[in-house]
Design brief:
The chain has 10 helices and 15 strands. By secondary structure, the protein is an alpha/beta fold. A 7-stranded parallel sheet has the order 3-2-1-4-5-7-12, sandwiched between helices. A two-stranded parallel sheet has the order 6-15. A two-stranded parallel ribbon has the order 8-11. Helix 1 links the parallel strand 1 and strand 2. Helix 2 crosses helix 3, helix 3 packs parallel to helix 4 and helix 5 crosses helix 7. It is globular. The C terminus is likely disordered. The protein binds NADP nicotinamide-adenine-dinucleotide phosphate (NAP).
Length: 287
């Protein structure tokens, strides 16, 4: 079966490409500015803003499933409109679609969010992700819309890089003690997304880790795991900063945890030991 990973050159996309290829799927992947490094995939340039490119690519690759792991941050044309264009192309091609969304669609006003909660974003990025979800669900009602939280765990995420740079003084800033999320291991998330792509499931899914931690708490665990001094991590409060954004957003992923085989570990577990690279190498699906 052929799997197409849109945004395969990104952080999550690279893990999806690696796992899909290792599980024996014909794997195609896209990049916007720089090709990915996984040799097992067929790489294609794609700008999701261009519907003609999307139609031509899906026609050429003829995937059974598309996973859209691209990100244009707050760029509306990429993150909102581009995601809907991907859904339109997937429907025309008759293939399954898994669209990756974010806990940024929520304001934090109710703290705990299950799949039935409507989006109430407070940032331009969250608004673009919420608009994308709405468009994807209307255009492709059989698609999976998978919301997730901070993606990390293998030592290579932007969150882990930030902690390394803060503790070594290569970067200024602080980690917020009042900004709480449910971080997910990139390998767990990729496993769950692939499982959903190969299933007949549809609708909104929450795929986040089991533990709610502040960014500062997560930073302390990462620093400790990676041999940096957690005492050097600067802390602050988002509530005292001028930055817009939600404080406490906890995705309830209980439904996914009970219905999927793929684990969704908590950050206290996966940040306690090694980087997780060795877990990935020995994953039960042989990937
Ligand atoms: N990282 C997190 O903590 C986090 C948290 C919650 C949700 N998410 C969601 O998870 C998904 C993956 O995030 P990520 O952190 O892995 O993203 P990422 O590392 O920033 O990668 C983004 C990907 O999108 C591609 N891209 C950018 N502009 C594009 C365009 N116009 N057309 C087509 N592709 C384009 C990039 O290609 P090039 O690299 O070639 O430019 C790259 O492959 C996104 O949907 C994001 O919203 C991420």
């Amino acid at each position: 079966m052929t799997v197409l990973v849109i945004g395969g050159s990104g952080y999550l996309g690279a893990e999806l490409v690696r796992r899909a290829a290792a599980a024996g799927h014909d794997t195609a992947a896209t990049f916007a500015t720089r090709p990915g490094t996984a040799p097992a995939a067929a790489w294609h340039h794609l700008d999701v803003r261009d519907p003609a490119q999307l139609t031509a690519l899906l026609g050429e690759v003829a995937p059974a499933a598309v996973i859209n792991a691209s990100s244009g941050q707050a760029d509306w044309a990429v993150t909102a409109e581009g995601a809907v264009r991907v859904a339109q192309a997937a429907v025309r091609q008759g293939c399954r679609l898994v669209h990756v969304s974010s806990d940024a669609v929520f304001s934090g006003a109710r703290v705990r969010y299950d799949e039935s909660c409507p989006p109430d974003p407070v940032t331009p990025y969250g608004a673009a992700k919420a608009a994308a979800e709405t468009g994807v669900r209307l255009v492709a009602p059989d698609a999976v819309v998978a919301r997730t939280s901070l993606i990390m765990g293998d030592g290579r995420s932007a969150h882990e890089r930030l902690v390394h740079e803060l503790t070594t003084g290569r970067r200024g800033g602080a980690l917020f003690t009042d900004e709480v999320r449910c971080p997910v291991h990139v390998a767990d998330l990729a496993g769950a997304l692939l499982e959903l792509a190969l299933s007949g499931e549809r609708g909104v899914w929450h795929l986040a880790g089991a533990d709610a931690l502040s960014r500062y708490e997560a930073g302390v665990l990462m620093a400790r795991r990676d041999g940096f001094d957690p005492g050097l991590l600067p802390s602050g409060r988002r509530a005292d900063s001028p930055l817009p954004g939600a404080l406490d957003v906890r995705l309830d992923s209980g439904a996914a945890r009970s219905r999927l085989r793929s684990p969704l570990r908590g950050a206290r577990e996966f940040l306690a030991g090694g980087t997780g690279a060795e877990d990935v190498a020995g994953a039960p699906d042989g990937s």
